[in-house]
Every structure is written in C-alpha cells, then in structure tokens.
Write a structure and sequence with these properties.
The complex is a heterodimer. By secondary structure, chain A is mainly α. Chain A has helices at 2-31, 38-56, 60-88, 93-113, 142-164, 166-176, 178-183, 188-213, 221-235, 240-260, 264-283, and strands at 131-135, 138-141. In chain A, 74% of the residues lie in helices and 3% in strands. Classes of the chains: A mainly alpha, B mainly alpha.
Chain lengths: 300, 349
C-alpha cells in the first residue's frame, strides 16, 4: 500500500513540477531563451507573498491577486530591458545575463530576508495538511491535488490560448519565424514582452505553491530551476503537454528514490534525467528543434 | 607574404614580441617570490593563480568553443575529492594533487559524450545537473562524512613554510602550463576550428571541421584545469566540504572574471582574474552585497561591453600583447587597422 500512496504522491508532485516548468518551456518555445533566473523569480514571488501575508495577515491566495500582475510586469520589463538586448548579441549572451540576474536576485533576497527557511503553510490554515481518503489507507493531500489540477488547467489553457486566440496565433507565428511574422504586421517586440510576462507570472504562481506545500529560502531558486529544466527535457523540450508527462516522471522517480534512501530523492531525479538524455541520444533524436512542437501549424 | 597585394598577414607585432619577453621576465620573478616575499603575499599570489586558472579555462570553453557551462564546479569539486581519495590510499600528497585532477579530467570524457550533444542552454543546465549529482554522490562517500567534510591529512607531513612554497610553485606551474596549453591549442588548427564552431556550428561542420572532436578537446582541457584548480584549492585550505567545492559561486566567479576581462580574448581572462582577485581582496568581507555586485557587473558587461575591458581596448587600439591570432596590416597606412585586425582574428565583433 505504501507504494500506491507513493505513486500517487509522485504523480501529484509531478503536477507541481509541470506548473513550475510551464513558464520555462513556454519562454524557450517562443524566444529560444533558457532563463537561468527562472527558479529565483519563482522564489522572489514566494517572498513577496510571504511579506504580504506576514505583515497584513491577508491569505496567500488573495495576495496572489496582487503579486501575479507584479511578476508579469517584472517579466515584461525583463524582456524589454535585458533579454531583448541579450538576444541581439547572440545565443550565449541570454545565458550569461540571466545567470547574472539569478545571482543578483538570490543574494538580494538573502540580504533582505536572511538565511531562514520559511513556509506559507501556517498562513493557509487546515488546507496545508487536509487530505482525502481514497481507500481506508491511501490518502492524498488536498493542496497537492489542487496544484496538480491547476497545472493541468494552466497547461491546457495555455495550449487553447495559443491555438484559438489571435494573440496566441501571433505568438506561434513569432516563435516559428520572427522576421516573417514582423513582415505580415505582427509586433514581435510586444509579442516577446507578453510571452515573457506570461512565463514569469507562471513561475511566480509555482513559487507561491512551493511555499505553501514545502519550505523555501532565498537560495532555493537554483534547485527549482533544475527541477523545472529536468521536467521540460524529460517531456521533450518546447512541448507543453510533454512538460506534464516530464513533471510526473520526475516526481514519481524522486518519490520512489526517497523511499529507498533519504538522499535518493535528488539523486534518482538527476539519474532519471540523464538516463532519458542518454536514451534519446542512443535513438538519435536529441537535437531539439525548438519551437512548440505540439502546436505547430505545419510539419517541421 | 606577397606585398604586391597591398597587405601583409602577420602574427607577431613589435609589441607582442616585447610583451612575450616581458611575460617571460615576470615569470622568472614570480618563480622566485617565495624566497623573497613574506607568507601573506605568497598565499595571496597562490589564490590569484588559482583564480586565473579558472578564468582562463572557462574562457577556453565559452569564449572559444562556445560552451557556456554553469557546472564547471563539478570538476573543481571532483579534483579535490579524488585528491583526498588518492592521498587516503597512500599516494604522496603532492603527486595526488595532480593525479586527482587527472582522474577528474578523464572522467570528463564519458560525461562529454552526453553533454556535448546538447545545445547552448541545454548544455549549460545539463552541466549544472552533472555538478549537483557529483556533489550528492561525493557526499555519500563515508570517507567524506557527508556535508561535514574531511581534511587532507597527508599535508601534515610538511611544515607550514614548505607547504606554502610548494603550493605556490605548484599553482604557478599549473597556471603557466595550462596557459601555454591554451595558447598552443588556439594558435594551431584546433584554435581555428573551435572558433568556427562557436561562430556557426552547422557551417563549420559543412566545411569539414570535426565539430565534436574539437569541442571534446577543449572540454577535457577545461575539466582538467578546473579540477587542478580544485585540488590546489584543497592544498591551500586543507579542508574539504562538498557544499563549498561544488558550490555554484565558482561559476559566478568564472563568468564575472571572463566577462569583465574579455570573453574570447586570450589576455582578457587574465586581466579579469586580477580584477576579481583585487575586488575579492578589498570587498570580499562585505558578504552577499559583493555577490550582488558581481552578478550585476556580469549583466552590465554582457549587455554593454560584450568583449570586456581587454576586448574593448584591443579593438580600439589594435593592441595584441600575445600573438594568438593573425592580423591583416594594410601597407601604407600608419599603424595597424584595428577593425581589420579584429576581423582577421576570426573573433566575434
């Protein structure tokens, strides 16, 4: 029975990873940028919600209404003032600037909040540990279930948004070929800024749920970036539905690993990630084409 | 070179010949330092040499082969770890420093099979995962005592003064040999091919550059160099804690040094390493604000001064201290044409 419970927990944890990885995958799909500050932006958002909840006593869920637009604005500004210029300078420069940003954010947060690990769990009352009984001895946490549902809704919604709305079509067109998109009248600068805003806002959302279901510190960002990246790569880079699958594979691997050895949680996750890479290499399909494969209007 | 075409291709300039001689003289003076200077100066210079190794190795990876790694701390930590293992199993401590780094360097070859297939950002984080995994696995080794760490006890066989001098000479020798290796590699066929890979991998492959072999050579060199820096760091600090050696801050330092000095230039990372050493010496005590400053400076340099301090000077005045590339000099014009000289080096503008 312990394994069934662990399997369910692993799948639900995978939902969190999908939520976390969504923005990373989206940004890579549209702009071909791997944002090395992704995890730190998630933690920044968690810190902002914590600050609001701690000083005013407002529920973190309500605080999200304020913080998510702020995160979107940060994403928009990031694109306008940093990434746009980085992209023009070549493929390596965005890596260097986002890494610099990661160092600035995490050490800035440390300076302001100190090294303490914190959690939002005390601010959401019973919800932090509520659970439903599936059978007499298999339980799932209601918060974990909520996160999973949210991830599915977010990934599905993003897919629908990209497929059926005019703005979504503009984003897809820009992702395929920015020069041609500009030629047919799409404001690619605005599209990139909106995509960055969406990506950073979803990172912020994930960060807050991390803070509710676990603990975080100013230096938690890099670990979250690595988890998100592993989920994206396992699921197939640039594919939104693959991200959910990748998240679940990672979550289940980690949960089972933790059953075997206390250190097994992290090690198993990394090993599964490398094994998937090696497997793809053996099959000869590692060269990622970028783009949003699941959403291409024409075959690549 | 035929002069009727109106230009000459040259490798050596008067300045680069003079500065190569000067570099030799500085080296001789540095080699004598432990006999002249007090302990504090010698320790600081040893630290500086280790920073320079890291800086030059990261530049070889990113600036020449186009491989931005945020996981070079994997090899820094593994170099130190294998040194401890070898020393524990009876290898004399100073040979163990070199052998430990060599083992880590050899380990980079199987790692490169997987990692070098990844492109830009995927490679960057892929290496980070490798570093995290190396950290976790090393911490599992009972010899290391988890995060508590262990000391390189073999060093007790030497007195403090001897140890200081040996560390210094070994760091100096390691730096000189690694610098020379990068210098020779870049002047040769490999230098031209890896820079072609960096500028356009597909185009390079289509004209017959052996992309993977070129990248692998640089990857191995950088892994070995970073591992040697790690084992030397262990020799100076004696204790080994996995968290410190596998920390991401090493990558932050490397990126800062290379970006400030000049990505893709030979002299730049040396300048960057010296600047970083001075900043750390004077501001290191300010704690995390100093790291915020490093990150901020990296962003500013990447965006506004992508060729770093040295690259900018080089571009503006056409100065070349060490003859790494070739340059084109138009006959009849006074002094070298900076723009053409830079273009002839095949370096990214």
């Amino acid at each position: 029975m312990i394994w069934v419970t662990q399997l369910l927990n692993g799948i639900l944890l995978g939902g969190y990873y999908a939520l976390l990885a969504c923005g990373l995958s989206f940004m890579f799909g549209v702009m071909r940028i791997i944002n090395l500050a992704h995890g730190d932006l998630a933690i920044l958002s968690a810190c902002l919600v914590f600050l609001i909840a701690d000083t005013t006593g407002i529920s973190p869920f309500v605080a999200l209404i304020v913080v998510l637009p702020v995160m979107a604005l940060i994403g928009w500004g990031l694109q306008r003032w940093m990434l746009e210029r980085s992209l023009r300078a070549g493929v390596l420069v965005p890596l260097l600037t986002t890494f610099g940003l990661a160092i600035v954010i995490e050490n800035g947060l440390f300076e302001y909040f100190g090294a303490d690990t914190r959690s939002l769990a005390p601010y959401i009352g019973d919800f932090a540990y509520d659970s439903w009984a599936i059978t007499s001895n298999v339980y799932i946490g209601s918060l974990a279930a909520l996160i999973f549902v949210l991830a599915v809704v977010l990934l599905g919604g993003l897919k629908l948004f990209l497929t059926y709305t005019p703005l979504g079509r503009s984003i897809r067109a820009t992702a395929e070929d920015p020069d041609t998109a500009a030629l047919v009248g799409i404001n690619t600068r605005a599209v990139y800024a909106i995509a960055a805003a969406i990506a950073v806002a979803t990172a912020g959302l994930a960060g807050v749920f991390l803070a509710m279901r676990a603990v975080f510190s100013p230096y938690s960002g890099p670990e979250q970036l690595i988890f998100a990246f592993e989920a994206v790569v396992i699921g197939g880079i640039g594919s939104l539905s693959g991200t959910l699958v990748g998240g679940i594979v990672l979550g289940v691997a980690q949960t089972f690993g933790a059953q075997i050895n206390p250190q097994g949680f992290l090690i198993t996750g990394h090993v599964v990630f490398l094994a998937v890479l090696a497997g793809r290499l053996a099959l000869g399909g590692l060269r990622s084409r970028g783009g949003i494969p699941g959403l291409r209007t024409r075959p690549p | 070179m035929s002069t009727d075409r109106g230009f000459v291709v040259e490798r050596w300039t008067r300045l680069s010949a003079a500065s190569s001689v000067a570099a030799g003289v500085i080296l001789v003076i540095l080699a004598l330092a432990p006999l002249v200077f007090d302990a504090n100066v010698v320790d600081n210079l040893t630290t500086l040499f280790i920073y320079l190794i890291l800086s030059v190795m990261w530049n070889a990876l990113a600036g020449y082969a186009g491989l931005v790694s945020v996981g070079q701390q994997a090899f820094f930590g593994l170099g130190a770890y294998f040194t401890i293992q070898l020393s524990y199993h009876g290898v004399s401590v100073y040979p163990a420093l070199l052998l430990g780094a060599l083992v880590a360097g050899i380990l980079s070859l199987p790692i490169s099979v997987l990692m070098l297939r990844l492109r830009s950002g995927e490679f960057a984080i892929g290496m980070w995962v490798v570093a995290e995994l190396a950290h976790l696995l090393v911490a599992l080794d009972p010899l290391i005592n988890g995060e508590t760490g262990v000391s390189l006890i073999g060093l007790n066989a030497y007195g403090a003064d001897d140890r200081r001098a040996f560390n210094y000479w070994m760091a100096l020798a390691a730096m000189v040999v690694l610098l020379a290796a990068v210098f020779v590699l870049l002047r040769g066929r490999l230098g031209a091919s890896v820079q072609a890979i960096r500028d356009d991998e597909d185009a390079a492959e289509s004209v017959g550059v052996r992309v993977l072999a070129g990248k692998r050579t640089i990857f191995f060199l950088a892994a070995f160099g970073c591992a040697l820096a790690g084992s030397l760091w262990l020799a100076t600090s004696i204790s080994f804690q996995p968290r410190t050696y596998f920390g991401i801050q090493w990558t932050a330092y490397m990126i800062f040094m290379v970006l400030v000095g000049g990505l893709g230039t030979f002299e730049g990372p040396i300048l960057g390493g010296i600047i970083f050493f001075l900043i750390e010496y004077f501001f290191g005590a300010t704690g995390v604000w100093y790291l915020v400053g490093l990150g901020g400076a990296a962003i500013v340099f990447a965006l506004f001064l992508p060729r770093g301090l040295w690259g900018t000077v080089e571009e503006k005045f056409g100065i070349r201290l060490l003859p790494v590339g070739y340059r084109l000099r138009m006959l009849g014009s006074k002094g070298p044409d900076a723009g053409l000289a830079a273009a002839q080096d095949g370096q990214k503008p």
